[in-house]
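Incident review: delayed structure delivery

Summary: a single-chain prediction request sat in the queue longer than the usual turnaround. Root cause was a stuck worker, restarted by the on-call engineer. No data loss occurred. The affected request and its eventual output are reproduced below so the record is complete for anyone auditing the incident later.

Affected input:
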Amino acid sequence: MTNLVPLTIHADLSLRAANGEVVTVTATDTIIDVTLPRLWSHQWALGPLADRRQRQSLLARLQRGLQVANLTLRFKVRQRVVAQLRPHSKPTRLSRLLGLAAVEVYIMPSLRALFERASSARSD
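Output delivered after worker restart:
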């Protein structure tokens, strides 16, 4: 087998979700950041992510792709990394509970993202 050359990427992309919210995807070198407007959306409960088995299968395929290219996929909310999927990620207790395969879900940044959203919504 030939030696694989690490993939280096650069990207800056904004996507508008069906509900009008903007999801931003940026990439530098081997890190892909997906910045979400909020931690939870009812749309995540639809489609292939709704079924636990399909969700885990999709995430396992995604992780294999990340392994081949040696890339890391990070999910951010309010500039905090709340979860990531790396080539050799191990699931956290929370990711196992949520059926998120090897996605590393970070409890404290996730709680901060939730509470900051709640407090800013109250002050609006």
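Verification: DSSP finds three helices and six strands in the chain.
Action items: add queue-age alerting; document worker restart procedure.
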